[in-house]
Structures are given as C-alpha cells and as structure tokens.
Design brief:
mainly alpha; Ferritin
Length: 214
C-alpha cells in the first residue's frame, strides 16, 4: 500500500500558478449584471464608433492586466485575509472584463491581440508584489487603482457624448476601482516610492497606446 504524498507549500504554490496560467483571463463568468444592459444603444457615426471601440479596447486590456495582478498577488500574499481580498477584487475585475468585451462586440470591434502578454506579465508582477509583504502589496493595489481611476476619467471625457452604454460601464468601473483603493488603504497600504509610481505610470501608458491600435 502506497503512502499518500504530503504536499508542501511550494507544491501548492506551483500548482496554483499552473492552474492560473492555463486559464483564459476572461474564463470566469460575470457575477453582476452589465450596468449598460437596459440603456438604449444610440446610433454612432463611423468615427464615433471607432473612437468608442478604441477606448473600450484599452479598458478591456487594463482589466485583463488588473485581474492578472490581483490573482498573482493572491498566490503570494502572506495572510489568508489578503488572499481573500485579492481574489474578491479579481472577481470584480472579471465583471469589468465581461462588460467591456460585450460593449466591444456591440461596437463590431475586438479585444487587444496583446492581452495574453498583459495578463502573464501582470501575474508575474503580482507575485513579486505579494512576496514583498501584504502592506506593500496593498500599497501597489492602491496606487494602481488611483492611476486607473484617473485614466477612466480621461476616457469618460473623451467618449462620444451619445455613447451612454460605454459611459455607464466606465462609471461603474470607476466606482469599483475607488472601493478597491479604499479597501487597500484601510488594510494598511504602504505608500510606494515615487520612482515606482512613475514606472507604473510609464508601463500603463505603454499598454494604453499599444492596446488602442493592436
């Protein structure tokens, strides 16, 4: 009779990574209804449609990255409370992911071809952030969400005025990101050094420019 193998923390960690990277970033079902579901889809001219699609493609790519970041941090978080908080936030990012993709379909457009790169890279960054300790990990989340909220505000101002469906989605996303930032601060987030904040901002700009067209 063979004895049952005892799995170490490293075994479980590597198994989690394998399971995570084997899944598509949008594989989980949405938990909440699309905030634009009951809003009339008003006609957009060709240029307006292209602009809305480009903006929503960028936001979809950002949510792919955010979900990967949260899941990566959940894998390496030090406390069970931090792991649970990261997984809950990742589920909400999954809602954003579905809403953006639904809107892209309505606009007869597509998601970014670079999404697998954003996702895998964000998982790796999340794992590194989580290993630095929960307070620094929360600090990373707080700064990320503040930058995302600023970015969403810019997109809300840039959207065609009559695109109320995209606007409703981005407004709900902005609300959720604010709650994530506040939760991270309440959990003891450390303020990140200025150079790290600038590097995060630079990386976000690279993704924004690339996802808009590719």
């Amino acid at each position: 009779m063979h004895s049952q193998r005892q799995y170490s923390r490293l075994d479980h960690f590597l198994s989690d990574i394998q399971n995570l990277l084997s899944k598509d970033a949008s594989s989980a079902p949405a938990l909440r209804a699309n905030p634009a579901a009951k809003i009339e889809d008003k006609a957009l001219d060709e240029n307006e449609k292209k602009l809305s699609a480009a903006l929503m493609r960028v936001n979809h790519a950002g949510e792919v990255a955010a979900q990967g970041l949260y899941l990566g941090q959940a894998l390496s978080a030090k406390s069970s409370d931090a792991k649970q908080q990261m997984r809950q936030a990742a589920a909400e990012e999954g809602d954003h992911l579905h809403w953006c993709e639904q809107r892209l379909n309505e606009l007869d457009s597509r998601v970014s071809h670079l999404n697998p790169i954003w996702y895998a890279g964000s998982v790796a960054i999340g794992i590194l952030a989580g290993q630095s300790g929960d307070r620094w990990s929360y600090g990373f989340i707080e700064e990320t969400e503040h930058q995302v909220m600023k970015h969403l505000e810019e997109h809300l101002n840039e959207l065609p005025e009559q695109d109320e469906k995209s606007r409703a989605i981005l407004q709900q996303m902005q609300h959720d990101e604010g709650e994530h930032a506040a939760a991270a601060r309440a959990s003891g987030a450390e303020d990140l050094p200025i150079p790290i904040k600038k590097l995060m901002s630079l990386s976000a700009k690279l993704m924004t420019i690339s996802a808009r067209y590719i």
